[in-house]
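Minutes, project check-in
Item: structure for the 484-residue chain
Input as provided by the requester:
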Amino acid sequence: MLNLETFKQYWDKQFPDVRLRRSHFILAVSGGVDSVVLAHLMHSVKAKCTIAHVNFQLRGEESIRDEQFVRDFANELTMPIEIHTCETAKYAEKYKMGIQQAAREIRYAWFGALTDKLTLQENEIVLTDETHLSNKKPNPKPIVLLTAHHADDQVETVLMQLFRGTGIHGLTGIPARRNDVLNMARPLLIFSKAAIKSYAAENGLAYVEDSSNEKNDYTRNLIRNQLLPQLATIYPMVQENIIATSDRLKEAEQIVIQTVDAYWKKGFKYKKGIPSIPILYWEKVKGNATYTWGLIKHYGFKPQQIDEVHKILTASKGAFIASDSHKLINWEGHIQIVSNESVKEFVTIPETVLLNSNVSANAVVNTFEVKTGTLHFEIIKNVPDVVIDKDPKYAYLDADKLEWPLLLRTWEPTDYFYPLGLRKKKKLNQFLGNLKLSPKHKEKVAVLCASNRICWVIGKRIDDRFKITLTTQNILKISWQEVL
Protein backbone atom coordinates (compact mmCIF):
# COMPACT_ATOMS: atom_id res chain seq x y z
CA MET A 1 0.00 0.00 0.00
CA LEU A 2 1.27 3.46 -0.92
CA ASN A 3 0.45 6.49 1.18
CA LEU A 4 2.39 9.35 2.70
CA GLU A 5 3.31 7.34 5.78
CA THR A 6 4.60 4.24 3.95
CA PHE A 7 6.48 6.52 1.55
CA LYS A 8 8.28 8.22 4.45
CA GLN A 9 9.02 4.89 6.12
CA TYR A 10 10.60 3.48 2.97
CA TRP A 11 12.55 6.70 2.44
CA ASP A 12 14.03 6.70 5.93
CA LYS A 13 15.01 3.04 5.63
CA GLN A 14 16.41 3.15 2.10
CA PHE A 15 17.95 6.65 1.93
CA PRO A 16 19.29 7.57 5.38
CA ASP A 17 21.93 9.78 3.73
CA VAL A 18 19.35 11.93 1.91
CA ARG A 19 17.39 14.38 4.04
CA LEU A 20 14.00 15.31 2.63
CA ARG A 21 14.09 18.85 3.97
CA ARG A 22 17.82 19.49 3.43
CA SER A 23 18.21 18.54 -0.22
CA HIS A 24 17.19 20.00 -3.56
CA PHE A 25 15.47 17.38 -5.71
CA ILE A 26 15.19 17.16 -9.48
CA LEU A 27 11.97 15.29 -10.25
CA ALA A 28 11.96 13.51 -13.61
CA VAL A 29 8.31 13.99 -14.61
CA SER A 30 6.93 12.61 -17.88
CA GLY A 31 3.29 13.30 -17.06
CA GLY A 32 2.47 9.63 -16.52
CA VAL A 33 0.92 8.35 -13.31
CA ASP A 34 4.21 7.21 -11.75
CA SER A 35 6.03 10.53 -11.94
CA VAL A 36 2.89 12.54 -11.11
CA VAL A 37 2.44 10.52 -7.91
CA LEU A 38 6.11 10.96 -7.00
CA ALA A 39 5.87 14.73 -7.49
CA HIS A 40 2.71 14.88 -5.37
CA LEU A 41 4.37 12.93 -2.56
CA MET A 42 7.43 15.19 -2.60
CA HIS A 43 5.17 18.24 -2.56
CA SER A 44 3.30 16.76 0.41
CA VAL A 45 6.49 16.39 2.46
CA LYS A 46 7.38 20.01 1.56
CA ALA A 47 10.68 19.11 -0.11
CA LYS A 48 12.44 21.63 -2.32
CA CYS A 49 12.01 20.35 -5.88
CA THR A 50 12.53 21.30 -9.51
CA ILE A 51 10.45 19.42 -12.07
CA ALA A 52 12.39 18.25 -15.14
CA HIS A 53 10.63 17.18 -18.33
CA VAL A 54 12.14 15.91 -21.60
CA ASN A 55 10.17 16.28 -24.83
CA PHE A 56 11.65 13.60 -27.08
CA GLN A 57 9.45 14.66 -30.03
CA LEU A 58 8.62 11.05 -30.85
CA ARG A 59 4.82 11.04 -30.59
CA GLY A 60 3.71 14.16 -32.44
CA GLU A 61 0.75 15.89 -30.76
CA GLU A 62 1.04 13.58 -27.76
CA SER A 63 4.51 14.92 -27.00
CA ILE A 64 3.20 18.50 -27.14
CA ARG A 65 0.25 17.51 -24.94
CA ASP A 66 2.54 15.89 -22.35
CA GLU A 67 4.81 18.92 -22.13
CA GLN A 68 1.87 21.28 -21.59
CA PHE A 69 0.37 18.96 -18.99
CA VAL A 70 3.65 18.92 -17.02
CA ARG A 71 3.90 22.72 -17.24
CA ASP A 72 0.38 23.08 -15.82
CA PHE A 73 1.06 20.45 -13.16
CA ALA A 74 4.25 22.24 -12.02
CA ASN A 75 2.33 25.50 -11.82
CA GLU A 76 -0.37 23.80 -9.73
CA LEU A 77 2.28 22.54 -7.28
CA THR A 78 4.13 25.90 -7.44
CA MET A 79 7.33 24.08 -8.36
CA PRO A 80 9.92 25.50 -10.78
CA ILE A 81 10.19 23.55 -14.04
CA GLU A 82 12.91 22.87 -16.62
CA ILE A 83 12.08 21.60 -20.13
CA HIS A 84 14.47 19.97 -22.57
CA THR A 85 13.35 19.45 -26.19
CA CYS A 86 15.39 17.18 -28.46
CA GLU A 87 15.22 15.41 -31.81
CA THR A 88 15.64 11.87 -30.54
CA ALA A 89 15.13 10.12 -33.88
CA LYS A 90 17.91 12.16 -35.52
CA TYR A 91 20.21 11.48 -32.57
CA ALA A 92 19.56 7.72 -32.84
CA GLU A 93 20.23 7.77 -36.58
CA LYS A 94 23.41 9.84 -36.23
CA TYR A 95 24.95 7.58 -33.58
CA LYS A 96 23.48 4.33 -34.99
CA MET A 97 21.53 3.21 -31.94
CA GLY A 98 17.98 2.28 -31.02
CA ILE A 99 15.41 4.90 -30.06
CA GLN A 100 15.23 3.66 -26.46
CA GLN A 101 18.99 3.87 -25.99
CA ALA A 102 19.11 7.30 -27.62
CA ALA A 103 16.34 8.59 -25.35
CA ARG A 104 18.14 7.24 -22.29
CA GLU A 105 21.45 8.88 -23.26
CA ILE A 106 19.79 12.21 -23.99
CA ARG A 107 17.74 12.12 -20.78
CA TYR A 108 20.59 11.34 -18.39
CA ALA A 109 23.06 13.67 -20.11
CA TRP A 110 20.60 16.51 -19.61
CA PHE A 111 19.90 15.51 -16.02
CA GLY A 112 23.64 15.73 -15.40
CA ALA A 113 23.83 19.20 -16.95
CA LEU A 114 20.79 20.31 -14.95
CA THR A 115 22.37 19.01 -11.75
CA ASP A 116 25.47 21.11 -12.45
CA LYS A 117 23.31 24.18 -13.14
CA LEU A 118 21.29 23.86 -9.93
CA THR A 119 24.44 23.16 -7.92
CA LEU A 120 25.86 26.49 -9.09
CA GLN A 121 22.61 28.21 -8.18
CA GLU A 122 22.62 26.69 -4.70
CA ASN A 123 26.20 27.89 -4.21
CA GLU A 124 25.22 31.40 -5.29
CA ILE A 125 22.37 31.35 -2.78
CA VAL A 126 24.79 30.38 -0.01
CA LEU A 127 27.28 33.07 -1.00
CA THR A 128 24.62 35.79 -0.96
CA ASP A 129 22.95 34.59 2.24
CA GLU A 130 24.09 36.87 5.06
CA THR A 131 24.13 35.29 8.50
CA HIS A 132 24.45 37.71 11.39
CA LEU A 133 24.79 35.17 14.19
CA SER A 134 27.88 33.44 12.85
CA ASN A 135 30.72 33.94 10.43
CA LYS A 136 29.96 30.53 8.96
CA LYS A 137 27.93 30.32 5.77
CA PRO A 138 25.28 27.60 5.36
CA ASN A 139 26.18 24.70 3.09
CA PRO A 140 24.42 24.47 -0.29
CA LYS A 141 21.75 21.80 -0.53
CA PRO A 142 22.88 18.63 -2.32
CA ILE A 143 21.14 18.06 -5.67
CA VAL A 144 19.47 14.63 -5.91
CA LEU A 145 17.71 13.30 -9.01
CA LEU A 146 14.54 11.29 -8.36
CA THR A 147 12.97 8.94 -10.90
CA ALA A 148 9.65 7.13 -10.53
CA HIS A 149 10.75 3.57 -11.26
CA HIS A 150 8.52 1.11 -9.41
CA ALA A 151 8.29 -2.60 -8.57
CA ASP A 152 6.81 -3.58 -11.95
CA ASP A 153 9.77 -1.89 -13.69
CA GLN A 154 12.07 -3.90 -11.44
CA VAL A 155 10.47 -7.20 -12.45
CA GLU A 156 10.66 -6.37 -16.16
CA THR A 157 14.31 -5.34 -15.86
CA VAL A 158 15.33 -8.54 -14.06
CA LEU A 159 13.62 -10.66 -16.73
CA MET A 160 15.25 -8.70 -19.56
CA GLN A 161 18.68 -9.16 -17.96
CA LEU A 162 18.04 -12.87 -17.46
CA PHE A 163 17.08 -13.39 -21.09
CA ARG A 164 20.16 -11.48 -22.26
CA GLY A 165 22.41 -13.82 -20.30
CA THR A 166 23.58 -11.64 -17.44
CA GLY A 167 25.70 -12.39 -14.41
CA ILE A 168 24.61 -12.06 -10.80
CA HIS A 169 24.74 -8.25 -10.86
CA GLY A 170 22.23 -8.00 -13.70
CA LEU A 171 19.76 -10.10 -11.72
CA THR A 172 19.85 -7.63 -8.83
CA GLY A 173 17.85 -5.27 -11.04
CA ILE A 174 17.51 -1.51 -10.73
CA PRO A 175 19.38 -0.04 -7.74
CA ALA A 176 17.32 2.13 -5.41
CA ARG A 177 20.27 4.47 -4.83
CA ARG A 178 23.19 5.67 -6.92
CA ASN A 179 25.79 8.28 -6.16
CA ASP A 180 28.41 8.12 -8.88
CA VAL A 181 28.05 10.04 -12.13
CA LEU A 182 24.63 11.17 -10.89
CA ASN A 183 23.36 11.49 -7.34
CA MET A 184 19.99 9.80 -7.69
CA ALA A 185 17.35 7.81 -5.84
CA ARG A 186 14.25 5.82 -6.77
CA PRO A 187 11.81 6.16 -3.85
CA LEU A 188 8.91 4.21 -5.44
CA LEU A 189 10.91 1.08 -6.24
CA ILE A 190 9.12 -1.19 -3.73
CA PHE A 191 5.63 -0.01 -4.70
CA SER A 192 3.62 -1.73 -7.43
CA LYS A 193 2.00 -0.02 -10.39
CA ALA A 194 -1.38 -0.92 -8.90
CA ALA A 195 -0.49 0.79 -5.61
CA ILE A 196 0.65 3.90 -7.47
CA LYS A 197 -2.59 4.07 -9.49
CA SER A 198 -4.58 3.58 -6.29
CA TYR A 199 -2.77 6.54 -4.67
CA ALA A 200 -3.51 8.70 -7.73
CA ALA A 201 -7.21 7.81 -7.57
CA GLU A 202 -7.48 8.44 -3.82
CA ASN A 203 -5.86 11.87 -4.21
CA GLY A 204 -7.72 12.87 -7.36
CA LEU A 205 -4.55 13.20 -9.45
CA ALA A 206 -4.85 13.63 -13.20
CA TYR A 207 -2.15 12.25 -15.50
CA VAL A 208 -1.53 11.48 -19.17
CA GLU A 209 -1.23 8.09 -20.82
CA ASP A 210 1.61 7.26 -23.22
CA SER A 211 -0.05 5.38 -26.08
CA SER A 212 3.27 3.74 -27.04
CA ASN A 213 3.15 1.73 -23.78
CA GLU A 214 0.33 -0.35 -25.26
CA LYS A 215 2.38 -1.32 -28.31
CA ASN A 216 4.68 -4.32 -28.29
CA ASP A 217 7.37 -2.72 -30.46
CA TYR A 218 9.82 -2.67 -27.55
CA THR A 219 11.01 -5.67 -25.54
CA ARG A 220 9.95 -4.16 -22.21
CA ASN A 221 6.39 -3.61 -23.46
CA LEU A 222 6.22 -7.19 -24.75
CA ILE A 223 7.27 -8.54 -21.36
CA ARG A 224 4.83 -6.23 -19.57
CA ASN A 225 1.80 -6.74 -21.82
CA GLN A 226 2.11 -10.39 -22.80
CA LEU A 227 4.73 -12.46 -20.98
CA LEU A 228 4.04 -11.47 -17.36
CA PRO A 229 0.24 -11.87 -17.62
CA GLN A 230 0.76 -15.35 -19.06
CA LEU A 231 3.26 -16.28 -16.34
CA ALA A 232 0.80 -15.06 -13.72
CA THR A 233 -1.71 -17.69 -14.86
CA ILE A 234 0.82 -20.35 -13.83
CA TYR A 235 2.53 -18.55 -10.92
CA PRO A 236 0.07 -16.02 -9.42
CA MET A 237 2.85 -14.52 -7.24
CA VAL A 238 5.34 -14.24 -10.10
CA GLN A 239 6.14 -10.53 -9.61
CA GLU A 240 6.54 -10.82 -5.83
CA ASN A 241 8.73 -13.93 -6.24
CA ILE A 242 11.01 -12.26 -8.80
CA ILE A 243 11.48 -9.23 -6.56
CA ALA A 244 12.19 -11.43 -3.52
CA THR A 245 14.76 -13.42 -5.50
CA SER A 246 16.38 -10.20 -6.73
CA ASP A 247 16.64 -8.94 -3.14
CA ARG A 248 18.33 -12.17 -2.03
CA LEU A 249 20.73 -11.91 -4.94
CA LYS A 250 21.67 -8.40 -3.80
CA GLU A 251 22.78 -9.91 -0.50
CA ALA A 252 24.60 -12.74 -2.27
CA GLU A 253 26.34 -10.27 -4.57
CA GLN A 254 27.79 -8.40 -1.59
CA ILE A 255 29.24 -11.65 -0.23
CA VAL A 256 30.74 -12.46 -3.65
CA ILE A 257 32.20 -8.96 -4.01
CA GLN A 258 33.82 -9.09 -0.57
CA THR A 259 35.27 -12.56 -1.23
CA VAL A 260 36.61 -11.68 -4.69
CA ASP A 261 38.04 -8.32 -3.60
CA ALA A 262 39.84 -9.97 -0.68
CA TYR A 263 41.38 -12.55 -3.02
CA TRP A 264 42.80 -9.96 -5.42
CA LYS A 265 43.93 -7.66 -2.62
CA LYS A 266 46.05 -10.49 -1.26
CA GLY A 267 47.59 -11.19 -4.67
CA PHE A 268 48.43 -7.61 -5.67
CA LYS A 269 52.09 -6.74 -6.09
CA TYR A 270 53.78 -3.53 -7.20
CA LYS A 271 56.70 -4.16 -9.53
CA LYS A 272 58.53 -0.94 -10.36
CA GLY A 273 55.46 0.96 -9.28
CA ILE A 274 53.14 -0.99 -11.62
CA PRO A 275 50.18 -2.92 -10.12
CA SER A 276 50.74 -6.59 -10.94
CA ILE A 277 49.17 -9.99 -10.35
CA PRO A 278 51.44 -13.07 -10.40
CA ILE A 279 50.25 -15.38 -13.20
CA LEU A 280 50.50 -18.42 -10.93
CA TYR A 281 48.22 -16.69 -8.43
CA TRP A 282 45.69 -15.79 -11.15
CA GLU A 283 45.72 -19.33 -12.54
CA LYS A 284 44.32 -20.62 -9.23
CA VAL A 285 40.98 -19.09 -10.20
CA LYS A 286 41.34 -19.09 -13.97
CA GLY A 287 38.36 -21.42 -14.41
CA ASN A 288 36.10 -19.10 -12.40
CA ALA A 289 34.85 -16.20 -14.51
CA THR A 290 33.42 -14.49 -11.41
CA TYR A 291 36.91 -13.92 -10.00
CA THR A 292 38.32 -12.61 -13.28
CA TRP A 293 35.34 -10.31 -13.80
CA GLY A 294 35.66 -9.06 -10.22
CA LEU A 295 39.13 -7.78 -11.12
CA ILE A 296 38.92 -6.58 -14.72
CA LYS A 297 35.61 -4.70 -14.38
CA HIS A 298 37.54 -1.98 -12.52
CA TYR A 299 39.77 -1.41 -15.56
CA GLY A 300 37.29 -0.80 -18.37
CA PHE A 301 37.00 -4.38 -19.62
CA LYS A 302 33.70 -6.03 -20.58
CA PRO A 303 32.33 -9.46 -19.58
CA GLN A 304 32.69 -10.59 -23.20
CA GLN A 305 36.48 -10.18 -22.85
CA ILE A 306 36.94 -12.67 -20.01
CA ASP A 307 38.06 -15.53 -22.29
CA GLU A 308 40.52 -13.25 -24.12
CA VAL A 309 41.93 -12.04 -20.80
CA HIS A 310 42.47 -15.65 -19.74
CA LYS A 311 44.47 -16.26 -22.93
CA ILE A 312 46.94 -13.56 -21.88
CA LEU A 313 47.94 -15.74 -18.91
CA THR A 314 49.52 -18.32 -21.23
CA ALA A 315 50.58 -15.97 -24.03
CA SER A 316 54.16 -15.01 -24.78
CA LYS A 317 55.91 -12.30 -22.79
CA GLY A 318 54.82 -8.85 -23.93
CA ALA A 319 51.37 -9.96 -25.08
CA PHE A 320 48.59 -7.66 -23.92
CA ILE A 321 44.89 -6.95 -24.13
CA ALA A 322 43.52 -3.42 -23.93
CA SER A 323 40.35 -1.69 -22.84
CA ASP A 324 39.62 2.00 -23.37
CA SER A 325 41.37 2.83 -20.12
CA HIS A 326 43.93 0.10 -19.33
CA LYS A 327 46.21 -2.63 -20.67
CA LEU A 328 46.83 -6.05 -19.15
CA ILE A 329 50.38 -7.06 -20.11
CA ASN A 330 52.08 -10.42 -19.69
CA TRP A 331 55.51 -9.59 -18.30
CA GLU A 332 58.04 -11.62 -16.31
CA GLY A 333 55.53 -14.03 -14.79
CA HIS A 334 53.06 -11.28 -13.92
CA ILE A 335 50.09 -9.55 -15.47
CA GLN A 336 50.87 -5.85 -15.31
CA ILE A 337 47.87 -3.48 -15.05
CA VAL A 338 48.79 -0.27 -16.83
CA SER A 339 46.60 2.80 -17.13
CA ASN A 340 46.41 4.46 -20.54
CA GLU A 341 46.11 7.82 -18.78
CA SER A 342 49.12 7.37 -16.54
CA VAL A 343 51.89 9.91 -16.93
CA LYS A 344 54.28 7.01 -16.56
CA GLU A 345 55.41 4.95 -19.53
CA PHE A 346 55.13 1.17 -19.57
CA VAL A 347 55.33 -0.14 -23.12
CA THR A 348 56.47 -3.50 -24.45
CA ILE A 349 58.40 -3.36 -27.74
CA PRO A 350 58.17 -6.50 -29.89
CA GLU A 351 60.99 -7.77 -32.09
CA THR A 352 58.84 -6.91 -35.10
CA VAL A 353 60.11 -3.32 -34.86
CA LEU A 354 63.15 -4.64 -36.74
CA LEU A 355 61.11 -5.49 -39.82
CA ASN A 356 61.77 -3.51 -42.96
CA SER A 357 59.16 -0.76 -43.21
CA ASN A 358 59.16 -0.99 -47.00
CA VAL A 359 57.84 -4.54 -47.18
CA SER A 360 54.22 -3.43 -47.42
CA ALA A 361 51.90 -0.70 -46.28
CA ASN A 362 50.73 -2.92 -43.43
CA ALA A 363 54.16 -3.94 -42.14
CA VAL A 364 55.26 -2.93 -38.66
CA VAL A 365 57.69 -0.09 -39.17
CA ASN A 366 60.98 0.20 -37.31
CA THR A 367 59.87 3.47 -35.73
CA PHE A 368 58.18 3.15 -32.37
CA GLU A 369 56.31 6.04 -30.76
CA VAL A 370 55.70 6.49 -27.03
CA LYS A 371 54.32 9.38 -24.98
CA THR A 372 57.61 11.14 -24.50
CA GLY A 373 59.23 10.58 -27.89
CA THR A 374 60.07 8.29 -30.81
CA LEU A 375 62.53 5.39 -31.06
CA HIS A 376 64.07 4.21 -34.34
CA PHE A 377 65.51 0.68 -34.47
CA GLU A 378 68.05 -0.71 -36.91
CA ILE A 379 70.21 -3.85 -37.00
CA ILE A 380 73.71 -3.32 -38.43
CA LYS A 381 76.72 -5.61 -38.78
CA ASN A 382 79.74 -5.03 -36.55
CA VAL A 383 82.32 -4.45 -39.25
CA PRO A 384 85.73 -2.76 -38.73
CA ASP A 385 84.63 0.53 -40.30
CA VAL A 386 81.29 0.78 -38.51
CA VAL A 387 80.57 4.37 -37.47
CA ILE A 388 79.55 4.90 -33.84
CA ASP A 389 77.86 8.24 -33.11
CA LYS A 390 78.81 9.53 -29.65
CA ASP A 391 75.64 11.63 -29.26
CA PRO A 392 73.70 10.30 -26.21
CA LYS A 393 70.50 10.24 -28.25
CA TYR A 394 71.96 7.11 -29.93
CA ALA A 395 72.45 3.71 -28.32
CA TYR A 396 74.61 0.94 -29.84
CA LEU A 397 73.89 -2.37 -28.12
CA ASP A 398 75.07 -5.93 -28.64
CA ALA A 399 71.94 -7.30 -30.32
CA ASP A 400 72.69 -10.91 -29.38
CA LYS A 401 72.66 -10.08 -25.65
CA LEU A 402 69.12 -8.70 -25.78
CA GLU A 403 66.02 -10.64 -24.88
CA TRP A 404 62.83 -9.64 -26.68
CA PRO A 405 60.37 -8.11 -26.22
CA LEU A 406 62.05 -5.06 -24.76
CA LEU A 407 60.36 -2.90 -22.16
CA LEU A 408 60.32 0.87 -22.11
CA ARG A 409 59.20 2.33 -18.80
CA THR A 410 59.57 5.40 -16.64
CA TRP A 411 62.45 5.05 -14.20
CA GLU A 412 61.83 4.17 -10.54
CA PRO A 413 63.78 5.22 -7.40
CA THR A 414 64.74 1.56 -6.80
CA ASP A 415 66.41 1.21 -10.24
CA TYR A 416 70.10 0.63 -10.70
CA PHE A 417 72.32 -0.04 -13.72
CA TYR A 418 75.98 -0.35 -14.75
CA PRO A 419 76.85 2.93 -16.52
CA LEU A 420 79.05 2.46 -19.59
CA GLY A 421 82.70 2.36 -18.51
CA LEU A 422 81.99 1.21 -14.96
CA ARG A 423 82.19 -2.34 -13.65
CA LYS A 424 79.93 -1.72 -10.66
CA LYS A 425 76.29 -0.84 -10.38
CA LYS A 426 75.01 2.59 -9.55
CA LYS A 427 71.64 3.78 -8.31
CA LEU A 428 69.85 5.47 -11.18
CA ASN A 429 68.51 8.17 -8.86
CA GLN A 430 72.10 9.12 -7.98
CA PHE A 431 73.19 8.98 -11.64
CA LEU A 432 70.39 11.35 -12.69
CA GLY A 433 71.12 13.64 -9.74
CA ASN A 434 74.70 14.05 -10.96
CA LEU A 435 73.35 15.20 -14.35
CA LYS A 436 71.64 18.11 -12.54
CA LEU A 437 68.42 17.73 -14.53
CA SER A 438 65.42 19.93 -13.81
CA PRO A 439 62.71 18.14 -11.80
CA LYS A 440 60.38 18.21 -14.83
CA HIS A 441 63.03 16.69 -17.11
CA LYS A 442 64.07 14.15 -14.51
CA GLU A 443 60.56 12.77 -14.03
CA LYS A 444 60.24 12.16 -17.79
CA VAL A 445 63.38 10.00 -18.01
CA ALA A 446 62.63 6.48 -19.30
CA VAL A 447 64.69 3.31 -19.38
CA LEU A 448 64.85 0.52 -21.93
CA CYS A 449 65.00 -2.95 -20.37
CA ALA A 450 65.87 -6.41 -21.62
CA SER A 451 64.13 -8.78 -19.26
CA ASN A 452 64.64 -7.16 -15.84
CA ARG A 453 67.94 -5.46 -16.70
CA ILE A 454 68.25 -1.86 -17.84
CA CYS A 455 70.19 -1.71 -21.10
CA TRP A 456 69.77 2.03 -21.79
CA VAL A 457 68.85 5.08 -19.77
CA ILE A 458 67.25 6.64 -22.82
CA GLY A 459 69.06 9.67 -24.12
CA LYS A 460 71.61 9.50 -21.29
CA ARG A 461 73.84 6.38 -21.17
CA ILE A 462 73.78 2.69 -22.06
CA ASP A 463 74.46 -0.13 -19.60
CA ASP A 464 78.00 -1.53 -19.69
CA ARG A 465 76.65 -5.10 -19.80
CA PHE A 466 75.19 -4.51 -23.28
CA LYS A 467 78.05 -2.60 -24.86
CA ILE A 468 79.69 -3.58 -28.15
CA THR A 469 82.81 -5.73 -27.81
CA LEU A 470 85.26 -7.36 -30.21
CA THR A 471 83.07 -10.47 -30.23
CA THR A 472 79.88 -8.57 -31.10
CA GLN A 473 78.46 -9.64 -34.46
CA ASN A 474 75.20 -7.70 -34.67
CA ILE A 475 74.55 -4.22 -33.35
CA LEU A 476 71.13 -2.84 -32.44
CA LYS A 477 71.28 0.87 -33.22
CA ILE A 478 68.55 2.91 -31.53
CA SER A 479 68.00 6.61 -31.99
CA TRP A 480 65.82 8.71 -29.70
CA GLN A 481 63.85 11.81 -30.57
CA GLU A 482 62.28 13.37 -27.50
CA VAL A 483 58.98 15.23 -27.60
CA LEU A 484 59.73 18.73 -26.43
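Outcome recorded: The CA atoms of residues 410 and 443 lie 8 Å apart.
No further action items on this chain.
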